[in-house]
Design a protein that fits this description.
This is IS3 family transposase. Helices cover about 50% and strands about 10% of the residues. The chain has 19 helices and 6 strands. It has helices at about 5-20, 25-30, 35-45, 60-75, 80-85, 90-105, 135-160, 170-180, 185-190, 195-210, 210-225, 230-240, 245-255, 335-345, 360-365, 365-375, 390-405, 415-430, 440-445, and strands at about 295-300, 300-305, 310-315, 320-330, 355-360, 380. Strands 1, 2, 3, 4, 5 and 6 form a 6-stranded mixed beta sheet that branches. The chain is elongated. It starts with 5 loop residues before the first helix and ends in a 5-residue tail after the last helix.
Length: about 450
Protein backbone atom coordinates (compact mmCIF):
# COMPACT_ATOMS: atom_id res chain seq x y z
CA UNK A 1 0.00 0.00 0.00
CA UNK A 2 1.21 3.46 -0.82
CA UNK A 3 0.49 4.72 2.66
CA UNK A 4 3.08 2.40 4.19
CA UNK A 5 5.96 4.68 3.39
CA UNK A 6 9.02 5.01 5.62
CA UNK A 7 7.66 8.29 6.99
CA UNK A 8 4.29 6.69 7.76
CA UNK A 9 5.92 3.74 9.55
CA UNK A 10 8.05 6.11 11.60
CA UNK A 11 4.95 8.15 12.53
CA UNK A 12 3.09 5.04 13.72
CA UNK A 13 6.09 3.76 15.69
CA UNK A 14 6.63 7.11 17.43
CA UNK A 15 2.93 7.35 18.24
CA UNK A 16 3.10 3.92 19.87
CA UNK A 17 6.24 4.80 21.86
CA UNK A 18 5.01 8.22 22.98
CA UNK A 19 1.27 7.86 23.20
CA UNK A 20 -1.32 5.93 25.21
CA UNK A 21 -2.54 3.75 22.32
CA UNK A 22 -1.33 0.17 22.05
CA UNK A 23 -0.96 -2.08 19.02
CA UNK A 24 -4.69 -2.78 18.75
CA UNK A 25 -5.65 0.87 19.21
CA UNK A 26 -3.27 2.05 16.52
CA UNK A 27 -4.40 -0.79 14.25
CA UNK A 28 -7.98 0.42 14.48
CA UNK A 29 -6.93 4.04 13.99
CA UNK A 30 -4.90 3.41 10.82
CA UNK A 31 -6.69 0.27 9.57
CA UNK A 32 -3.62 -1.89 10.07
CA UNK A 33 -3.03 -5.35 11.46
CA UNK A 34 -1.73 -4.97 15.02
CA UNK A 35 0.95 -7.61 14.32
CA UNK A 36 2.28 -5.39 11.53
CA UNK A 37 2.66 -2.50 13.97
CA UNK A 38 4.30 -4.82 16.48
CA UNK A 39 6.79 -5.87 13.80
CA UNK A 40 7.57 -2.24 12.90
CA UNK A 41 8.16 -1.34 16.55
CA UNK A 42 10.43 -4.37 16.98
CA UNK A 43 12.46 -3.43 13.91
CA UNK A 44 12.79 0.18 15.12
CA UNK A 45 13.90 -0.85 18.61
CA UNK A 46 16.49 -3.23 17.21
CA UNK A 47 17.92 -1.11 14.37
CA UNK A 48 16.56 2.42 14.66
CA UNK A 49 15.27 4.26 11.60
CA UNK A 50 17.10 1.81 9.33
CA UNK A 51 14.90 -0.96 10.65
CA UNK A 52 11.72 0.43 9.11
CA UNK A 53 13.06 1.65 5.79
CA UNK A 54 12.28 -0.34 2.70
CA UNK A 55 15.09 -2.66 1.73
CA UNK A 56 16.05 -3.94 -1.70
CA UNK A 57 18.98 -6.16 -0.81
CA UNK A 58 20.64 -9.11 -2.48
CA UNK A 59 22.47 -11.10 0.16
CA UNK A 60 25.74 -12.79 -0.64
CA UNK A 61 26.25 -16.49 -0.07
CA UNK A 62 28.74 -15.74 2.69
CA UNK A 63 26.25 -13.51 4.50
CA UNK A 64 23.52 -16.12 4.21
CA UNK A 65 25.81 -18.76 5.68
CA UNK A 66 26.81 -16.45 8.53
CA UNK A 67 23.12 -15.90 9.31
CA UNK A 68 22.42 -19.63 9.34
CA UNK A 69 25.51 -20.26 11.48
CA UNK A 70 24.41 -17.66 14.00
CA UNK A 71 20.89 -19.09 13.98
CA UNK A 72 22.12 -22.63 14.67
CA UNK A 73 24.81 -21.69 17.21
CA UNK A 74 22.42 -19.61 19.31
CA UNK A 75 19.29 -21.77 18.80
CA UNK A 76 17.29 -18.78 17.52
CA UNK A 77 13.85 -18.79 15.99
CA UNK A 78 13.37 -17.42 12.48
CA UNK A 79 11.79 -14.29 13.94
CA UNK A 80 14.68 -13.68 16.36
CA UNK A 81 17.24 -14.12 13.60
CA UNK A 82 15.31 -11.78 11.32
CA UNK A 83 15.22 -9.10 14.03
CA UNK A 84 18.93 -9.53 14.77
CA UNK A 85 20.04 -9.16 11.12
CA UNK A 86 17.29 -6.72 10.10
CA UNK A 87 15.83 -9.09 7.52
CA UNK A 88 12.14 -8.43 6.82
CA UNK A 89 11.07 -11.86 5.57
CA UNK A 90 11.79 -14.42 8.27
CA UNK A 91 10.40 -17.20 6.07
CA UNK A 92 13.39 -16.87 3.75
CA UNK A 93 15.53 -18.78 6.25
CA UNK A 94 13.74 -22.06 5.52
CA UNK A 95 14.60 -21.65 1.83
CA UNK A 96 18.25 -20.87 2.62
CA UNK A 97 18.53 -23.93 4.86
CA UNK A 98 17.04 -26.16 2.14
CA UNK A 99 19.39 -24.76 -0.50
CA UNK A 100 22.44 -25.11 1.74
CA UNK A 101 21.64 -28.73 2.58
CA UNK A 102 21.12 -29.57 -1.09
CA UNK A 103 24.03 -27.76 -2.68
CA UNK A 104 26.26 -26.23 -0.01
CA UNK A 105 27.65 -22.69 -0.26
CA UNK A 106 27.25 -22.55 -4.05
CA UNK A 107 23.51 -23.04 -3.76
CA UNK A 108 23.27 -19.88 -1.67
CA UNK A 109 24.74 -17.72 -4.43
CA UNK A 110 22.24 -15.00 -5.52
CA UNK A 111 20.64 -15.68 -8.87
CA UNK A 112 20.79 -13.14 -11.67
CA UNK A 113 17.57 -11.40 -12.61
CA UNK A 114 15.97 -11.89 -16.04
CA UNK A 115 14.78 -14.78 -18.14
CA UNK A 116 16.54 -18.06 -17.73
CA UNK A 117 18.20 -19.55 -20.80
CA UNK A 118 15.96 -21.99 -22.62
CA UNK A 119 16.69 -25.63 -22.06
CA UNK A 120 16.74 -26.15 -25.83
CA UNK A 121 19.51 -23.62 -26.33
CA UNK A 122 22.78 -25.09 -27.45
CA UNK A 123 25.10 -25.93 -24.67
CA UNK A 124 28.43 -24.19 -25.03
CA UNK A 125 31.52 -24.94 -23.08
CA UNK A 126 31.90 -22.39 -20.27
CA UNK A 127 34.96 -20.22 -20.24
CA UNK A 128 37.62 -20.72 -17.62
CA UNK A 129 36.37 -17.85 -15.41
CA UNK A 130 32.79 -19.13 -15.68
CA UNK A 131 33.58 -22.60 -14.45
CA UNK A 132 32.27 -23.24 -10.97
CA UNK A 133 34.60 -25.50 -9.12
CA UNK A 134 32.82 -27.08 -6.15
CA UNK A 135 34.41 -26.30 -2.81
CA UNK A 136 36.20 -29.15 -1.11
CA UNK A 137 35.27 -30.18 2.41
CA UNK A 138 38.46 -28.57 3.71
CA UNK A 139 37.67 -25.27 1.97
CA UNK A 140 34.11 -25.37 3.22
CA UNK A 141 35.29 -25.90 6.81
CA UNK A 142 37.75 -23.04 6.40
CA UNK A 143 34.96 -20.80 5.15
CA UNK A 144 32.72 -21.85 8.01
CA UNK A 145 35.49 -21.17 10.55
CA UNK A 146 36.00 -17.71 9.06
CA UNK A 147 32.29 -16.96 9.38
CA UNK A 148 32.28 -18.19 12.97
CA UNK A 149 35.13 -15.78 13.70
CA UNK A 150 33.18 -12.91 12.14
CA UNK A 151 30.15 -13.83 14.21
CA UNK A 152 32.23 -13.99 17.42
CA UNK A 153 33.73 -10.59 16.64
CA UNK A 154 30.33 -9.00 16.07
CA UNK A 155 28.99 -10.44 19.33
CA UNK A 156 31.95 -9.17 21.34
CA UNK A 157 31.76 -5.80 19.62
CA UNK A 158 28.10 -5.41 20.52
CA UNK A 159 28.67 -6.55 24.11
CA UNK A 160 31.67 -4.26 24.60
CA UNK A 161 30.42 -0.94 23.29
CA UNK A 162 27.00 -1.26 21.68
CA UNK A 163 28.02 1.58 19.33
CA UNK A 164 28.41 1.69 15.60
CA UNK A 165 31.85 3.30 15.90
CA UNK A 166 34.44 1.54 18.00
CA UNK A 167 37.78 2.88 19.12
CA UNK A 168 41.07 1.21 18.27
CA UNK A 169 41.55 0.46 21.96
CA UNK A 170 38.27 -1.46 22.12
CA UNK A 171 39.05 -3.37 18.93
CA UNK A 172 42.47 -4.30 20.30
CA UNK A 173 40.79 -5.65 23.41
CA UNK A 174 38.57 -7.86 21.26
CA UNK A 175 41.56 -9.05 19.21
CA UNK A 176 43.38 -9.96 22.41
CA UNK A 177 40.43 -12.12 23.46
CA UNK A 178 39.81 -13.77 20.08
CA UNK A 179 43.45 -14.63 19.40
CA UNK A 180 43.21 -17.22 22.17
CA UNK A 181 40.94 -19.26 19.83
CA UNK A 182 41.85 -18.12 16.31
CA UNK A 183 45.10 -17.28 14.50
CA UNK A 184 45.96 -13.65 15.12
CA UNK A 185 46.45 -12.94 11.40
CA UNK A 186 42.94 -14.13 10.68
CA UNK A 187 41.52 -12.13 13.59
CA UNK A 188 43.26 -8.94 12.48
CA UNK A 189 41.91 -9.43 8.96
CA UNK A 190 38.33 -9.74 10.21
CA UNK A 191 38.65 -6.81 12.60
CA UNK A 192 40.40 -4.68 9.98
CA UNK A 193 43.34 -3.71 12.16
CA UNK A 194 47.04 -3.54 11.37
CA UNK A 195 49.31 -5.75 13.43
CA UNK A 196 51.38 -2.77 14.55
CA UNK A 197 48.24 -0.94 15.72
CA UNK A 198 47.15 -3.93 17.79
CA UNK A 199 50.49 -4.30 19.55
CA UNK A 200 50.66 -0.58 20.24
CA UNK A 201 47.20 -0.58 21.84
CA UNK A 202 48.01 -3.77 23.74
CA UNK A 203 51.21 -2.22 25.13
CA UNK A 204 49.31 0.90 26.18
CA UNK A 205 46.77 -1.19 28.06
CA UNK A 206 49.58 -2.93 29.94
CA UNK A 207 51.14 0.43 30.84
CA UNK A 208 47.81 1.71 32.14
CA UNK A 209 47.62 -1.33 34.38
CA UNK A 210 50.82 -0.33 36.17
CA UNK A 211 48.62 0.79 39.06
CA UNK A 212 47.08 -2.68 39.45
CA UNK A 213 48.85 -3.30 42.77
CA UNK A 214 48.05 0.12 44.18
CA UNK A 215 44.40 -0.31 43.11
CA UNK A 216 44.22 -3.50 45.16
CA UNK A 217 45.78 -1.70 48.11
CA UNK A 218 43.32 1.19 47.82
CA UNK A 219 40.35 -1.17 47.72
CA UNK A 220 41.67 -3.15 50.70
CA UNK A 221 42.02 0.03 52.79
CA UNK A 222 38.61 1.28 51.66
CA UNK A 223 36.93 -2.03 52.53
CA UNK A 224 38.76 -2.32 55.84
CA UNK A 225 37.31 1.00 56.96
CA UNK A 226 33.87 0.25 55.49
CA UNK A 227 33.92 3.12 53.01
CA UNK A 228 34.67 5.75 55.65
CA UNK A 229 37.94 6.93 54.08
CA UNK A 230 38.16 9.45 51.27
CA UNK A 231 41.19 9.80 49.03
CA UNK A 232 43.13 11.89 51.55
CA UNK A 233 42.95 9.30 54.32
CA UNK A 234 43.59 6.48 51.87
CA UNK A 235 46.72 8.33 50.70
CA UNK A 236 47.90 8.72 54.30
CA UNK A 237 47.26 5.03 55.00
CA UNK A 238 49.31 3.99 51.95
CA UNK A 239 52.14 6.27 52.97
CA UNK A 240 52.13 4.65 56.40
CA UNK A 241 52.93 1.39 54.61
CA UNK A 242 56.11 3.01 53.30
CA UNK A 243 54.99 3.81 49.76
CA UNK A 244 55.14 7.36 48.43
CA UNK A 245 52.16 8.29 46.29
CA UNK A 246 50.53 11.54 45.26
CA UNK A 247 47.05 12.19 46.60
CA UNK A 248 45.87 13.15 43.11
CA UNK A 249 46.82 9.69 41.85
CA UNK A 250 44.81 8.09 44.65
CA UNK A 251 41.87 10.37 43.90
CA UNK A 252 41.95 9.43 40.21
CA UNK A 253 42.24 5.70 40.90
CA UNK A 254 39.44 5.78 43.46
CA UNK A 255 37.25 7.48 40.86
CA UNK A 256 38.09 4.75 38.35
CA UNK A 257 37.27 2.07 40.94
CA UNK A 258 34.01 3.79 41.89
CA UNK A 259 35.09 4.27 45.50
CA UNK A 260 33.75 7.33 47.26
CA UNK A 261 33.59 8.39 50.88
CA UNK A 262 30.19 8.92 52.42
CA UNK A 263 28.35 12.22 52.42
CA UNK A 264 27.44 13.39 55.86
CA UNK A 265 23.74 13.87 56.48
CA UNK A 266 22.49 16.64 58.70
CA UNK A 267 22.78 16.00 62.39
CA UNK A 268 19.92 15.60 64.82
CA UNK A 269 19.46 18.41 67.36
CA UNK A 270 17.08 18.96 70.28
CA UNK A 271 16.55 21.84 72.73
CA UNK A 272 16.76 20.97 76.41
CA UNK A 273 15.73 24.23 78.08
CA UNK A 274 17.40 26.35 80.79
CA UNK A 275 18.00 24.87 84.23
CA UNK A 276 20.53 26.04 86.81
CA UNK A 277 23.45 28.33 86.11
CA UNK A 278 25.45 28.73 82.90
CA UNK A 279 29.24 28.90 82.82
CA UNK A 280 31.28 31.37 80.71
CA UNK A 281 32.67 30.38 77.33
CA UNK A 282 36.31 29.82 78.26
CA UNK A 283 37.14 27.80 75.17
CA UNK A 284 36.22 30.58 72.69
CA UNK A 285 36.41 28.13 69.77
CA UNK A 286 40.11 27.50 70.36
CA UNK A 287 40.06 23.80 69.60
CA UNK A 288 43.83 23.30 69.65
CA UNK A 289 45.62 21.81 72.63
CA UNK A 290 49.38 21.47 73.02
CA UNK A 291 49.18 18.44 75.32
CA UNK A 292 46.79 15.78 76.55
CA UNK A 293 44.25 16.56 79.31
CA UNK A 294 44.38 20.27 78.58
CA UNK A 295 41.03 20.82 76.83
CA UNK A 296 38.08 18.46 76.85
CA UNK A 297 34.69 18.74 75.12
CA UNK A 298 31.48 16.81 75.76
CA UNK A 299 27.88 16.56 74.61
CA UNK A 300 24.99 14.10 74.38
CA UNK A 301 23.55 12.65 71.18
CA UNK A 302 20.50 10.49 70.53
CA UNK A 303 19.91 7.34 68.45
CA UNK A 304 16.57 5.79 67.52
CA UNK A 305 16.30 2.06 66.84
CA UNK A 306 13.00 0.20 66.36
CA UNK A 307 11.10 2.81 68.34
CA UNK A 308 13.58 2.79 71.22
CA UNK A 309 16.15 5.47 71.98
CA UNK A 310 19.75 5.23 73.06
CA UNK A 311 21.79 8.17 74.34
CA UNK A 312 25.55 8.53 74.12
CA UNK A 313 27.63 10.87 76.28
CA UNK A 314 31.38 11.00 75.42
CA UNK A 315 34.32 13.22 76.36
CA UNK A 316 36.81 14.10 73.62
CA UNK A 317 40.37 15.32 74.23
CA UNK A 318 41.17 18.16 71.82
CA UNK A 319 44.87 17.27 71.89
CA UNK A 320 44.43 14.23 69.66
CA UNK A 321 40.67 13.88 69.15
CA UNK A 322 40.56 10.76 71.32
CA UNK A 323 37.38 9.67 73.10
CA UNK A 324 38.75 9.29 76.62
CA UNK A 325 35.45 8.31 78.27
CA UNK A 326 31.87 7.57 77.24
CA UNK A 327 28.65 6.12 78.60
CA UNK A 328 25.35 5.05 77.03
CA UNK A 329 21.85 4.85 78.47
CA UNK A 330 18.29 4.34 77.29
CA UNK A 331 17.22 7.52 79.05
CA UNK A 332 19.13 10.84 79.26
CA UNK A 333 19.50 10.69 83.04
CA UNK A 334 22.24 12.37 85.03
CA UNK A 335 23.68 9.03 86.13
CA UNK A 336 24.98 8.58 82.59
CA UNK A 337 26.90 11.87 82.86
CA UNK A 338 28.21 11.05 86.31
CA UNK A 339 29.51 7.63 85.21
CA UNK A 340 31.23 9.21 82.22
CA UNK A 341 32.91 11.81 84.44
CA UNK A 342 34.25 9.19 86.81
CA UNK A 343 35.82 7.34 83.87
CA UNK A 344 37.47 10.53 82.64
CA UNK A 345 38.79 11.50 86.08
CA UNK A 346 40.85 8.28 86.16
CA UNK A 347 42.99 9.62 83.30
CA UNK A 348 44.03 12.73 85.22
CA UNK A 349 47.30 13.18 87.04
CA UNK A 350 47.47 15.54 90.04
CA UNK A 351 48.82 18.33 87.83
CA UNK A 352 46.09 18.04 85.15
CA UNK A 353 43.38 20.72 85.35
CA UNK A 354 41.64 20.63 81.96
CA UNK A 355 38.84 22.83 80.67
CA UNK A 356 35.67 20.80 80.10
CA UNK A 357 33.50 22.51 77.50
CA UNK A 358 29.85 21.66 76.73
CA UNK A 359 26.68 23.27 75.47
CA UNK A 360 24.04 24.71 77.82
CA UNK A 361 22.20 21.42 78.28
CA UNK A 362 20.36 20.79 81.53
CA UNK A 363 22.88 18.12 82.61
CA UNK A 364 25.74 20.60 82.65
CA UNK A 365 23.80 23.21 84.65
CA UNK A 366 23.11 20.84 87.52
CA UNK A 367 24.80 21.49 90.84
CA UNK A 368 26.02 17.87 91.06
CA UNK A 369 27.83 18.16 87.73
CA UNK A 370 29.47 21.47 88.57
CA UNK A 371 30.47 20.20 92.03
CA UNK A 372 32.15 17.14 90.48
CA UNK A 373 34.22 19.36 88.22
CA UNK A 374 35.24 21.64 91.07
CA UNK A 375 36.29 18.68 93.23
CA UNK A 376 38.86 17.68 90.59
CA UNK A 377 39.93 21.23 89.76
CA UNK A 378 38.37 21.24 86.26
CA UNK A 379 37.28 24.54 84.74
CA UNK A 380 33.78 24.48 83.26
CA UNK A 381 33.09 26.17 79.92
CA UNK A 382 29.83 26.48 78.00
CA UNK A 383 28.84 27.44 74.47
CA UNK A 384 26.72 30.48 73.92
CA UNK A 385 23.02 29.78 73.73
CA UNK A 386 21.91 28.51 70.33
CA UNK A 387 25.43 28.50 68.86
CA UNK A 388 26.53 24.98 67.89
CA UNK A 389 29.81 26.27 66.40
CA UNK A 390 31.17 26.88 69.90
CA UNK A 391 31.27 23.11 70.36
CA UNK A 392 32.09 22.19 66.77
CA UNK A 393 34.72 19.58 67.70
CA UNK A 394 32.18 17.45 69.55
CA UNK A 395 29.54 17.96 66.88
CA UNK A 396 32.07 16.83 64.27
CA UNK A 397 32.67 13.57 66.12
CA UNK A 398 28.94 12.86 66.28
CA UNK A 399 28.65 13.49 62.54
CA UNK A 400 31.51 11.08 61.83
CA UNK A 401 30.08 8.45 64.18
CA UNK A 402 26.65 8.52 62.59
CA UNK A 403 27.91 8.74 59.02
CA UNK A 404 30.56 6.03 59.25
CA UNK A 405 28.73 3.69 61.62
CA UNK A 406 25.09 4.33 62.43
CA UNK A 407 23.77 5.13 58.93
CA UNK A 408 25.77 2.30 57.33
CA UNK A 409 24.23 -0.47 59.41
CA UNK A 410 20.84 -1.78 60.41
CA UNK A 411 20.11 -2.59 64.05
CA UNK A 412 17.35 -4.74 65.50
CA UNK A 413 17.78 -3.57 69.09
CA UNK A 414 19.44 -0.84 71.14
CA UNK A 415 21.59 -3.53 72.77
CA UNK A 416 23.05 -4.36 69.36
CA UNK A 417 23.62 -0.66 68.70
CA UNK A 418 25.24 -0.18 72.10
CA UNK A 419 27.74 -2.97 71.43
CA UNK A 420 28.44 -1.55 67.98
CA UNK A 421 29.16 1.91 69.42
CA UNK A 422 31.72 0.43 71.78
CA UNK A 423 33.45 -1.34 68.89
CA UNK A 424 33.41 1.77 66.72
CA UNK A 425 34.89 4.02 69.42
CA UNK A 426 37.69 1.50 69.89
CA UNK A 427 38.26 1.60 66.12
CA UNK A 428 38.05 5.42 66.10
CA UNK A 429 40.66 5.75 68.84
CA UNK A 430 43.12 3.08 67.76
CA UNK A 431 42.79 2.44 64.00
CA UNK A 432 41.15 5.38 62.24
CA UNK A 433 43.82 7.79 61.04
CA UNK A 434 43.40 11.57 61.02
CA UNK A 435 45.19 13.78 58.53
CA UNK A 436 45.78 16.57 61.02
CA UNK A 437 47.52 14.04 63.28
CA UNK A 438 50.18 13.34 60.61
CA UNK A 439 48.22 10.37 59.33
CA UNK A 440 48.12 8.66 62.75
CA UNK A 441 45.23 7.45 64.84
CA UNK A 442 44.51 9.33 68.11
CA UNK A 443 46.17 6.65 70.24
CA UNK A 444 49.18 6.43 67.91
CA UNK A 445 49.56 10.19 68.06
CA UNK A 446 49.36 10.26 71.85
CA UNK A 447 51.93 7.44 72.21
CA UNK A 448 54.47 8.80 69.74
CA UNK A 449 57.81 10.07 71.14
CA UNK A 450 57.82 13.71 72.22
CA UNK A 451 60.46 14.68 69.61
CA UNK A 452 58.57 13.04 66.70
Amino acid sequence: MTKNTDEFKYQVVQEYLDGPLGYSGLGEKYDLNHETIRRWVGWYRAHGIEGIRKKFTHYSAEFKLSVLTHLWDNALSYGQAAAHFNIRNSGIFAQWIRLYREGGLDALQPRRKGRHRSMSAPITKPSEDQEQIPLSQEALLKELNHLRLENAYLKKLQALSGKAETSAREKAQIVDELRQQYPIAQVLEVVGMARSTFYYQHKQSLLEDKHAVIKQRIRAIYDKHHGRYGYRRVTAAIRQLGELINHKTVQRLMKLLGLKSLVRPKKYRSFQGNIGLAAPNLLQRDFKASEANQKWVTDVTEFNVAGEKLYLSPILDLFNGEIIAFETAKRPVYKMIDTMLNQAFKRLSPKDKPILHSDQGWQYRMHAYQASLQSKGLMQSMSRKGNCLDNAAMESFFAVLKTEFFYLNQFTSVEQLEQGIKEYIRYYNQDRIKLKLKGLSPVQYRNQPLNA
